[in-house]
Amino acid sequence: MSQLYVGSEVGQLRRVLLNRPERALTHLTPSNCHDLLFDDVLAVEEAGKEHDVFAQTLRDQGVDVLMLHDLLEQTLAIPEAKQWLLNTQISYFRYGPTFAQELRQYLASQDHAHLATLLLGGLAYSELPLTSSSMLPSMHHPLDFVIEPLPNHLFTRDTSCWIYQGVSLNPMSKKARQRETNHLRAIYRWHPLFAGQDFIKYFGDDDLHYDNANIEGGDVLVIGNGSVLVGMSERTSAQGIENLAANLFQHGQAKEVIAINLPKHRSCMHLDTVITHMDTNIFSVYPEIMRSDLETWRLTPNDNGHGLRAEASHDYVNAIESALDVDHLNIITTGGNSYEAEREQWNDANNVLTVRPGVVIGYERNVYTNEKYDKAGIKVLTVPGNELGRGRGGARCMSCPLERDGLTI
Q1: Which residues participate directly in catalysis (predicted)?
Q2: Maximum distance among all alpha carbons in the chain?
Q3: Higher model confidence: residue 36 or residue 132?
Q4: What pLDDT is attached to residue 282?
């Protein structure tokens, strides 16, 4: 495998991790979708077709596309990885010692492809062919989940994020997503593409309870030039950012982290839903949220090489200009009138994935914003998103870059 390195948001994208939505979406219903962090149910087959177009668009641009299900299946073929993952995901604390042991034995008997499908897509009590001596199964209805589905695994951006020469395995804030990280821990520890490779694990790889130190990758933008832009959202805490920053500095992988305090509501759950990087000095911005008065901090290493210091910054735009060493940023705002702009931001018009400088992938439905991108010289490769967009995530959310070139300034 070529080098695991992500040097920017806009350099040539070379390798990416996606997750095609399948079984998990079939378990999404009007009665449980909000608990599973979705606003609506998706048409499963159509969502899969839309995702196939997205993946093929990346391949057509020369990007090597890896699929999470495939990597997990191949990781489960390694006995040590399989044992660790079953012990972790089917823990005594989650299920009680009796039922956990019985459930592990059943899952261990499945072939690796089906086991990966169950871990990602969920399992109901009615689908479990075993008689248990535990209290737990008799206390549940047949359609209750033994293993909750993980439909948000569609958004591979969040669970882990590669930053320069390493990765953060993110402690997720929402219960519905916390098990996702264990899949990536197993893959990055044992899968042949990653095991033995020279990369740093900054944060989140230890089997710990990370308390208030939460991070999700949608809040992390590797803007390049040794700088990282991070949003303090409803999903990423100041404690998480400071822990990540301290480890980046300790390993000499960043010179500064710019932290922006975002409003804590659903329409801007992550930083990349309101700002993304499209070319060296070009950003897409939703101005209703990304105002100049947002509280912004600049984190830098302490002189002694340990820890960090935080100082308030007057304006996130000025902070980014300084970090990138550019005279000014070209800001492209969400298109249309105020109604159209709000609607398109909700449909991820600002959440584009840059393939190379000035070339991005976005949903075709965001016609007003895409037109503004085009007029600004940004080429938009459009993909369908009528179903995928219901999950509140666009092309950037649905992709985890593993290898990307740095900036060319």
Answers
A1: 397
A2: 69
A3: 132
A4: 95
Q: Is 105 left (phi over 0), alpha (psi -120 to 50) or beta?
A: alpha
As a whole number of angstroms, the distance between CA 389 and CA 364 comes to 11
Confidence of residue 1 (pLDDT cuts 50, 70, 90): very low
Whether 161 is catalytic: no
pLDDT at res. 40: 66
Query: Is 115 inside a domain boundary?
Result: no
Residue 103 near residue 89, CB atoms below 8 Å: no
Residue 352 identity (one-letter amino acid): V
Tokens coding 132: 């248990």
Tell how strand 379-383 and strand 166-169 pair up. unpaired
User: Is residue 182 domain-resident?
Assistant: no
Distances in whole angstroms, Cα of residue 81 to Cα of each of 86, 188, 190, 374, 389: 9, 10, 6, 47, 34
The strand pair at 330-333 and 282-285 is best described as: parallel
Supply the DSSP string of 86-101, one letter for each residue.
HHHHT-HHHH-HHHHH
pTM of the model: 0.94
Model confidence over 341-358: pLDDT tens digits?
A: 888 787 778 899 999 999
Q: Is there a domain that residue 94 lies in?
A: no
Sheet with strand 200-203: strands edge to edge? 160-163, 166-169, 200-203
Range of the domain at 321: 5-63+151-162+213-404
Poorest-pLDDT segment among 20-24, 54-58, 199-203, 253-257: 20-24
- Asked if residue 249 belongs to a domain, the reply is yes
Q: Cα dihedral angle (91, 95, 97, 102), rounded to 10 degrees?
A: -90
Q: Are 283 and 297 in contact (CB under 8 A)?
A: no
Q: How many other C-beta atoms are found inside a 10 Å radius of the C-beta of residue 330?
A: 14
* Neighbouring-strand partners of residue 154: none
Question: Residue 107 and residue 126: Cα distance in Å, rounded?
Answer: 15
To the nearest 10°, the Cα dihedral for 169, 171, 172, 175? 130
> From CA 351, how far away is CA 285, in angstroms rounded?
9
In the chain, DSSP finds a helix count (H) and a strand count (E) of 13, 20
Nearest CA to 255 out of 284, 225, 283, 210 is that of: 225
Could you tell me the CATH number of the domain that includes residue 238? 3.75.10.10
Rounded to whole angstroms, the Cα distance separating 109 from 25 reads: 25
Contact (CB, 8 A) for 359 and 61: yes
Strands 200-203 and 166-169: parallel
The single residue of 33, 161, 268, 397 carrying the catalytic annotation is 397
